Amino acid sequence: MDMNTVLAIAGVIVVAIVVIALSVWPGKSRKRDLDRAMGKTAPDDKRTRDAKAAADARLTAEAEAAKESEKAGGAAAGTAATGKSAADAESVSPAAKPAAAESTPEPAKTETPESVGSRLTRLKAKLAKSGNPFGKALFDILAKDNLSESDWEDVEDTLLLADVGAEASAQLVDDLKTDARITGKADPAEVRATLKDKLLDLVGRDTDRRLNVEKPGANKPGVIIMVGVNGTGKTTTAGKLARLFVSEDKQVIMGAADTFRAAAADQLETWGARVNVPVVRADKDGADPASVAFEASAKAKEANADVLIIDTAGRLQNKANLMDELGKIRRVTEKNLPVDEVLLVLDATTGQNGMAQAKVFAEAIGITGVVLSKLDGSAKGGIVISVQKELGVPVKLVGLGEGPDDLAPFDPEGFVDGILA
């Protein structure tokens, strides 16, 4: 066989192989395409298939977890969607939890203060139940058939211990000694009636105890400045006084001019929030109290409020310092509104010990009335008599307890009846 024949045969074989290869390759390509279209993967893509299956399973689990969390209303719904476990969700700080999981706080409910008439009845009952040793001791002595000089000395001692004061005590003993209903063989009813009359004379049965802001023709807004040493319940009394005005349907604004004591403004705001009374305060502790008083008086004037109550600092470093600060507060307030009332808050339980400080406040700003806090009907009831005699101004309000409505206008007859009950 010659060379040409061999080459021809080899060429035919090569062509045949090429033809066969070309016919087989498209079939395999079509099969691979068909497998992919049917969701199958070539054996070489097993890793990809496993990863996809794992991802599908994880997403399905997360979706189920999210649904369960939404049903339970839990805060972990957001963390479940990002693949975090329930333990991870518990570790998230409250500030970082979804807003949907936070509950909106309910607004504070506005309280309705007790009426004045109800307060007077309740406070009189408190005095009567207090077992007052002041009135009881006096009655026990004076009810004797024949009073010796020693008995009269006991009467005077009892009055002094009750903080009636030396001058007033001596006056009352002299009046009782000359009264035939006491020196004669009187029955207990006559003794009690006589003692009541004498005490009412000392307390001042006809004294005008109305707050100046409530008198006919009073300014509007009426301005009341509260003064007194720390610890007497001054800020608390300011809050209670606001409630008293609210019970009379008056619009009230308070000014927190006690910037020396850090908690004073917060305390006043707490009282105001309970009866919907706005409070003007400084934006920082230690601010100028006069600037607070000025802003409060300006806002009260703008709002045409009925009453503005300004609470002041109770520190008593020295007399000059006190006069300067209180004087400045009054002056800047009067650039907007006249000051109608300056109420001195005294703790009745301190008795005569608080009189010296009371006199300093009286000289510093010119008080117009006294509020006796903590007048619980104990042995210190005579402070009502001595404070009026020493300061020359009436007791206008009294507080007999810690309750928010335990503040009422001072009623002389009710007070005397209470301590003699």
Automatic annotation (TrEMBL):
It is an enzyme of class 3 (hydrolase). GTP binds at residues 228-235, 311-315, 373-376. It is a peripheral membrane protein. The chain crosses the membrane at residues 6-25. Keywords: Cell membrane, Cytoplasm, GTP-binding, Hydrolase, Membrane, Nucleotide-binding, Receptor, Transmembrane, Transmembrane helix. Residues 30-118 are annotated as: Disordered. Gene3D superfamilies: P-loop containing nucleotide triphosphate hydrolases, Signal recognition particle SRP54, nucleotide-binding domain. Residues 72-91 have a biased composition (Low complexity). One of its GO terms (cellular component) is plasma membrane. It is found in: Cell membrane; Cytoplasm. GO terms for biological process: SRP-dependent cotranslational protein targeting to membrane. Residues 394-407 form the SRP54-type proteins GTP-binding domain. It catalyses: GTP + H2O = GDP + phosphate + H(+). Its EC number is 3.6.5.4. Involved in targeting and insertion of nascent membrane proteins into the cytoplasmic membrane. Acts as a receptor for the complex formed by the signal recognition particle (SRP) and the ribosome-nascent chain (RNC). Belongs to the GTP-binding SRP family. FtsY subfamily. This is Signal recognition particle receptor FtsY. It comes from Bifidobacterium breve DSM 20213 = JCM 1192.
